[in-house]
Amino acid sequence: MYDVKSLKAEEFISDEEIKETLKYADENKNNIELIDKILEKAKERKGLSHREASVLLACELEDKNREINKLAEQIKKDFYGNRIVLFAPLYLSNYCVNGCIYCPYHAKNKDIPRKKMTQDEIKREVIALQDMGHKRIAIETGEDPVNNPIEYVLESLKTIYSVKHKNGAIRRANVNIAATTVENYRKLKEAGIGTYILFQETYDKKRYEILHPTGPKHNYDYHTEAMDRAMEGGIDDVGLGVLFGLSTYKYEFAGLLMHAEHLEAVHNVGPHTISVPRIRKANDIDPSSFENGIDDDTFCKIVACIRIAVPYTGMICSTRETKDIRAKVLHLGISQISGGSKTSVGGYDEQDYTEEDSSQFDVSDTRTLDEVMKWLMEIGYLPSFCTACYREGRTGERFMEICKSKQIQNCCHPNAIITLKEYLEDYASNSTKEVGEKLIQKEIPTLTNEKIQEKTKEILNQIEHGERDFRF
Questions:
Q1: What are the beta bridge partners of residue 197?
Q2: Which domain holds residue 330?
Q3: How many Å apart are CA 427 and CA 425, to the nearest integer?
Q4: Rounded to 5 degrees, what are φ and ψ at 213?
Q5: Quick count: other Cβ atoms within 10 Å of Cβ 311?
Q6: Is residue 276 part of a domain?
Q7: 203 found inside a domain
């Protein structure tokens, strides 16, 4: 039975409920009266149920799909303005005991070089990331209790936060590691992680078990219930995601939204972020062998419908996607992107880089962070390295309350301007700095609170004179 408040995976992600939802959506995909009613509800900016959103996703009416895109873009602006948060992944180790057939790190792959970074190597990677201008990273490891125990992750976090190179610092380290225990989640919280990220990969249990034939990740229930354990362990910012292409996209979409509804119903805190990766080529992975791959138009529609259904969440698009696709989905709901990313272990520092490919997937957007920064500004966005909410304790339920009331912009927008200024002073090329300085002068008048505007100007002046790390 479907029960949004149940702590059992098969009850809050009910296969029967998803199938009924998809049947309902298919029956009503051209029901203009119902679609208009759903769109009117969506305009209240309070989100939609998985069933309502599934109707929009199934909609085949061109004029209504244009309305969906337009509404998604406006909702994104209402909650996040023109800000785009930047981050980079940091792969610590690709040792893994699982048998996931869509990932080159699977245990049977004897072709991919295995590597686990030492703490000295991690320091060099962090310095390389800081020298690019990054302030926020996402830690990635394979699941291996011998090579990648929780103690290794905790030690690595301590190392990452300790590195202060020139004006650089990693101010927020999000963590994407395998499902674990409440005790280990408490340890991660105590270590000062930002968001705990765990992709479900697929919500289709039968498909999930086929795709994860061996290893601890084979346990669907343990994996799906991980976010509840994380929140029990004190982590109040969690990030969801599915790997589109593993099962049918409509099934995944409904399951993803049901998971978000579950977190809100039980913990009063929905997902801090939702990621939308698609299968990409990797060492021994051929994406064409997966029959559920989705085209670009479908991908864009998924982004728009998630944005409408879960208006408060941060939406992430990685360098799996091309420059052109990333430009499209930025308009439709994406609020965070990676830049200058390497998906291999030891990929950032030249001293540790090898030609042996240890990457988890092929990067489609290979531009440098500086090139991404300039591009974002030229197409009308304000790049942000802000980590203020995390460091000021505006997380979990407190963050959601501020975000849902759309008050988050009162601190996020000036913080974005401030962190952009730091980047321009310390890392930007001359051409990027020129574009950035013009953008800052354009953005300052948009701060409607006069006191905040004056304080922002004062801080910008202090940054020009060598001071760093300000926040509202």
A1: 239
A2: 77-366
A3: 6
A4: -70, -30
A5: 23
A6: yes
A7: yes
pLDDT by residue (tens digit) across 256-274? 999 999 999 999 999 999 9
Q: 68: which residues sit within 8 A by CB, 6+ positions away?
A: 39, 56, 59, 301, 304, 305, 308
> What is the rounded end-to-end Cα distance, in angstroms, of the chain?
46
Phi-psi region of 264 (alpha: psi -120 to 50; beta: other; left: phi over 0): alpha
* Alpha-helical regions (H) of 59-204: 62-80, 119-132, 150-162, 182-190
Half-sphere exposure of 322 (CA within 13 A, CB side): 6
Task: List the structure tokens of 439.
Answer: 């953008």
Whole-prediction pTM? 0.95
Paired tokens of 408: 């988050």
Whether residues 173 and 237 share a domain: the answer is yes
Maximal CA-CA distance, the chain: 63
Q: Is 201 helix (H, G, I), strand (E, B) or coil?
A: strand
417 and 329, same structural domain?
Answer: no
pLDDT attached to residue 408: 65
Beta strand segments in 108-242, E: 136-141, 172-176, 196-197, 238-241
Q: Do 319 and 244 have their domain in common? A: yes
Listed residue (186, 100, 125) closest to 150, CA to CA: 186
DSSP string covering 280-325, please?
Answer: --BTTB-GGG-TT---HHHHHHHHHHHHHHSTTSEEEE-TTS-HHH
State the Cα–Cα distance between residues 459 and 452, nearest whole angstrom.
10
Phi, psi of 210 (to 5 degrees): -70, -40
Domain shared by 358 and 436, yes or no: no
Other beta carbons within 10 Å of 438? 11
Task: List b or e across 410-431, with b for residues whose CB sees 16 or more CB atoms inside 10 angstroms.
Answer: ebbbbbbbbbbbbbbbebbeee
Residues 6 or more apart whose Cβ sits within 8 Å of residue 205: 10, 15, 220
Q: What is the Cα–Cα distance from 269 to 404, expressed in whole angstroms?
A: 11
d(CA 210, CA 348): 34
For the stretch 131-189, pLDDT in tens is 999 999 999 999 999 999 999 999 999 999 999 999 999 999 999 999 999 999 999 99
Characterize the bridge pairing of strands 336-338 and 273-275: unpaired
Write phi, then psi, for 212 (nearest 5 degrees): -125, 70
Strands 238-241 and 196-197: parallel
Cα–Cα distance for residue pair 445/465, rounded to 1 Å: 22
Output 17-20 pairs: Cβ under 8 A, ≥24 positions apart. Answer: 17/258, 18/203, 18/251, 18/254, 18/255, 18/258
Domain's final residue, options 344, 366, 388: 366
9: pLDDT strictly greater than 60: yes
* C-alpha span between 339 and 333 (Å, rounded): 18
